[in-house]
Amino acid sequence: MATTQGAARGEATTLPGLAVVSRTGRRRRPSGEAPPLPHPISASGWAYLAVATAVLAAWVLLYLGFGSAPFEALVRADVAVLQRIEALRTDALTPVMLDLHALGSEWTVRGLRWATLVALLALRRFRHLAVFLGITLVVTALTATSSLVVGRLRPLEVEIIGGWEGYSHPSVPVVALGLSLMGILYTLVPGGTWRNRAKWAAGVPIVALIAARLYLGVDHPSDAFVAAVIGMAIPVVAFRLLTPSETFPISYRRGRTAHLDVGGRRGEAIALALYQQLDLTLLDMRPVGLEGSAGSTPLLLKVRHGPEAVESEVFAKLYARSHLRSDRWYKLGRAILYGRLEDEGTFSSVRRLVEYEDYLLRVMGDAGLPVPLSYGFVEITPEREYLIVTEFLAGATQLDEAEVDDGVIDNALEVVRRMWDAGLAHRDLKPANVMVRDGKVLLIDVAFATVRPTPWRQAVDLTNMMLTLALGSSAEKVYERARRLFEPEEIAEALAASRSVTIPSDLRRRLREDGRDLLGQLCALAPRRPPISIQLWSIRRIALTLAVAASVAAAVGLLAFNLRTAGLL
Amino acid sequence: MSTAPRRFGPLAVLALAVLGACAGPDTAIPECQAGGRLAILAQAVPSASMVPCVREMPVGWSFSALDVESGRARFWLDSDRAGVRALEVELAAACDTGGASSVEPEEDRTRRFQRLASLTPRFAGATYDVFEGGCVTYRYELTEGAHIALHSELHEAVSLFPRQTLAAELQDDLGLRLDP
């Protein structure tokens, strides 16, 4: 069995790696075929949805027709059950039930919800936090509104011996407790075995509260049942739709939460997609370089391909909608911070994002830049998840782990010069994205690159590359070598365009750890030039800034109101 | 399938908006007629032989909110001249009428007391209707000058409904007793 190793475009004129990968395999494509990883709502999810729909339908039929025969039948059935429970009251059991009744108290619910909010903030699970708050508000509003619309009396024919508040249907404390516990389950408990166990644990207090309220005669059985559905089924379905475990896994292992779990069904789907769409047989897959990647899940794949069953290692990045949102926020932030210098649109879908990276790899390769070969991308779930597959740069090391001699410095600066000449900018130059193999520089992670960038952005690229190189050598050496390819005025302009915010956070951190004032030393070597203002205003920037400021103000204003509505204040 | 979550939010908001449109504050008005909206006030104070209700809303007045719980029921009326929640009506098993003056009652089998807290800048005070097993307190804060008309209007708006009548209606409608 042969093994091959690719060569980055721009690094060599021959492309032995590309030829070994067949782009399409011959297979029948039945119409209506499901994608490798269909968007999941599990059987239990559908069951929850069916129960919720059935209850809501029954609710509308029974209660909007107040005074009708079905309504009266339900009331009598409820009363009959309550009278049987009333017959079980004893002096010993009543205090126990009164204590259990406290499970639905405002303070219990507030405690649970605040604990969840604080935990989510501490764990920086902002997606889960937003969904939890949203579901809490929606369900609370739904409960309050339906209670008002139905306006049901407390149970008749039985003596009510517990405290109550408001109309009887649906049981507000049961909704509140169910919602709070489901919130904890779906935002803090890892999916799988732990969550399945926790579901049983969560069921105990809910059942206890329902039992207590029926014993005390404050709720009808149908009030409690519908409340359990509203408080549990709706949150479960909403969490599954808005924070699916496959995309937003809950894990307490160390690592960035943006990375997707590639085991289980997703792992099988990746293997299937690679086989069907790129004719690659997946032999092994493992995450690689997670710490240097925030926007995708990088993977090292071992694949078999071609008629000779050649085994190769290829690199892949898995993109999901969560990554798309990260990109949107990132670009919005930059548009506000840099204004006209960085005005840029966002990607409308994950597909567009992956297509763009694939395109950029090809454009940069065509321009003679040393970037990995793109083998294309595969669709895992339409419009939700895609995997871009590129050459794996075997034998390459990150720049900060390699010897940075004159040859490497010259080569790296030539790459920047070539990008300037080709009208390209990488926009994320930092040690983790500059690799070295056999004394030659290779650029990776071109997802943020752009064609026809602003001159300012190209200038920033030069500074970031110089700083990256200086980390492994010295400012004097880098400046001296840079003068071979750039005019002193060009270097001065690049350095004048740099600010703390224009330097990638990873590079900033390494500069801090290094301790030398490398930017200051470079500026001292270059001709004097006043700093270039990065605060250039455009109508778009003003509108965005105002819109964001107004949104933040409105959000803060609404937050207190909504927290009160949701029973958190 | 892929657009389901995107549609979920707007659909939920739309459903809530529709429900909300059906359920304004007026939905909860405890009108002076037998039915669940009034009977729940009677359930809040099982000893009360009468419950307060909204008889007829005078021009310029509107229903604000209802808050009912075991032991107490309250509702508020807004006035375009006296402001938001110009009148609070509270039903409880008992009330403190100390310092209040006895005045002519409007309903049979009740005693009425009145206590003024201030005349200026706002005409504020409380009226108490005391009856068997309960008491209704009317707390008001009215605009000076228009207060005589407003005071008259608020007592026109709110009346007392006999518990016995409510219980009889429920027995007829559902065959169930209000007080077991």
Key structural traits:
heterodimer; A: 569 residues; alpha+beta; Phosphorylase Kinase, domain 1; Transferase(Phosphotransferase), domain 1; 4 domains; 5-stranded antiparallel sheet; 3-stranded antiparallel sheet; 19 helices; 53% helix; 10% strand; elongated; disordered N terminus; B: 180 residues; 7-stranded antiparallel sheet; two-stranded antiparallel ribbon; 28% helix; globular
Task: Please give the structural blueprint.
The complex is a heterodimer of chains A (569) and B (180).
Chain A: H1 16-19, H2 43-63, H3 69-86, H4 93-101, H5 106-122, H6 126-150, H7 172-188, H8 193-216, H9 221-242, H10 264-278, E1 280-287, E2 297-305, E3 310-320, H11 321-338, H12 350-366, E4 374-381, E5 385-391, E6 397-398, H13 406-422, E7 424-425, E8 434-437, E9 440-443, E10 450-451, H14 455-471, H15 475-482, H16 488-496, H17 505-514, H18 518-525, H19 539-565
Antiparallel strand pairs in A: 1-2, 2-3, 3-5, 4-5, 6-8, 7-10, 8-9
Chain B: H1 4-22, H2 36-44, E1 50-54, E2 61-69, E3 72-79, E4 83-92, E5 101-103, E6 111-118, E7 122-131, E8 134-143, H3 147-157, E9 158-162, H4 163-174
